[in-house]
Amino acid sequence: MATFEYAPAPESRSAVTLRASYGLFVNGEFVDGRGTPFKTTDPATEEVLAEVAEADERDVDDAVKAARRAHTRVWSRMSGSERGKYLFRIARLVQERAREIAVLETLDNGKPIKEARDVDVPTAAAHFFYYAGWADKLEHAGLGTRPESLGVAGQVIPWNFPFLMLAWKVAPALAAGNTVVLKPAETTPLTALLFAEICQQADLPPGVVNIVTGAGATGHAVVSHDDVDKVAFTGSTEVGKAIARSVAGTTKKVTLELGGKAANIVYDDAPVDQAVEGIVDGIFFNQGHVCCAGSRLLVQESVAEEVLERLKRRMATLRVGDPLDKNTDVGAINSPEQLGRIQELVGVGEAEGAERWSAPCELPTKGSWFAPTLFTGVSQAHRIAREEIFGPVLSVLTFRTPQEAVAKANNTPYGLSAGVWSDKGSRILWTAARLRAGVVWSNTFNKFDPASPFGGYQESGYGREGGRHGLAPYLKGSER
């Protein structure tokens, strides 16, 4: 997140051609929805980008039927090597249209263009390349000698990484021989619909990928449909619990990647400058709209003052503003509703006695914005230390011993991720072995690779996505 002395021209909106309206993508074609169309807006400018169709239960049923036909007649009968060719083709098209996807993602989501361009889109393409390689090697994945696809996968993705989460869900499902009905978040549907164009461009057989847009009712219709064999959801813990209840007693396989309240532990022998960069990346990347964000900073008492001083100095250099500016570090909050949630919990933190410090910056007058913020004097009883804020807000706690650090880090109902900063490998390994988190980063944070599994414990969900493990939830006879 380097800053510069000049202000370059923003990335051009001409990289994308926005339609006035977008339909559903069912059986290889764009169709009108039967529900009430809704508008999607640019959170940085409040400008309406497009009108999007809403799918009702009948539309979802049409999509599931199309997916079932495609699975029965075409996709499950196709050889793994042939399926892999389609995935490779999609991956190459994502690369070819990367600039278009990145600009559209930034407009619809509010994230900085450099994050969409340099992280989200390349990682999405990498997932399609990775799982294209697995498509003809499923019998070697350690998941059975004759692995079979489940059938139709109903997938619901969030608004924080719309295109990347689509790739996380769609790529392994298709590689394993399943067909897909995907529901993007209602505030960020546009890159999913652009992906539908890519499916057409790749000549993907009709019905293999179907995209239905809408709000919670549409998502509920997808996950509760009787002919959906697999449910994959990324989003809030509250909605994840509701989904788990709705599929209880059925034969559906379920993968849930939910909320988090990750601890970022900094020991007294940590490389301070490197740790500060990791702290900033851990909580302010994507405006803190990250399930595995390092939102709880645990610093050893002997270096707490030095770390905080350098952290504040670094936060003061972050550029907040136009997401299409290539030097913007912190973009817009995705929606007024999410901004209200952040403001509410920040107000609670101040009322409970924690000390707030926000980076000095001038926020735009239009749109949804929040300055990078940290709280000191935080105890484990504070709501800001317990609840997921899902914004650019960091809670700072201190510890004296490694045992205390682990106890405080594990004092959460979540268990998605954690970070450890130390110059001693033995201390890192000791700590990581005792942290109840699905992913533990060592002297780094927020690093992902398609070959590495990701997922959580407790209220952060269950199941794994990515790597060989990410194929298991889409194959018969594999563990959940």
CATH class of the largest domain: Alpha Beta
Q: Supply Rg.
A: 22 Å
Looking at the structure, the CATH topology of the largest domain is Aldehyde Dehydrogenase, Chain A, domain 1
* Inertia-based shape: globular
Spatially, the strands of the biggest sheet line up as 13-14-15-12-11-16-17
CATH architecture of the largest domain: 3-Layer(aba) Sandwich
Write down how many β-strands occur, each being a DSSP E stretch of 2 or more residues. Answer: 18
Strand content: 15-25%
Sheet bearing the most strands, described? 7 strands, mixed
Specify the structural class.
alpha/beta
Annotated CATH homologous superfamily of the largest domain: Aldehyde Dehydrogenase, Chain A, domain 1
Euclidean distance between termini CA atoms: 38 Å
Enumerate the spans where pLDDT stays under 50 for 5 or more consecutive residues. 1-7
Overall mean pLDDT stands at 95
Helix content: 25-40%
SS field, number of helical segments: 14
| Structural domain tally | 2
Can you characterise this structure?
It is built from 14 helices and 18 strands. Helix content is 38%, strand content 16%. Helix 2 packs antiparallel against helix 4 and helix 3 crosses helix 4. The chain is globular and about 65 Å long. The strands form four sheets. Strands 13-14-15-12-11-16-17 form a seven-stranded mixed beta sheet, with helices on both faces. A six-stranded mixed beta sheet has the order 8-7-6-9-10-18, sandwiched between helices. The chain has a three-stranded mixed beta sheet with strand order 1-5-4, with no helix packed on it. The two termini are 38 Å apart. It folds into two domains: 263 residues, Aldehyde Dehydrogenase, Chain A, domain 1; 180 residues, 3-Layer(aba) Sandwich (Aldehyde Dehydrogenase, Chain A, domain 2). It is of the alpha/beta class and 480 residues long.
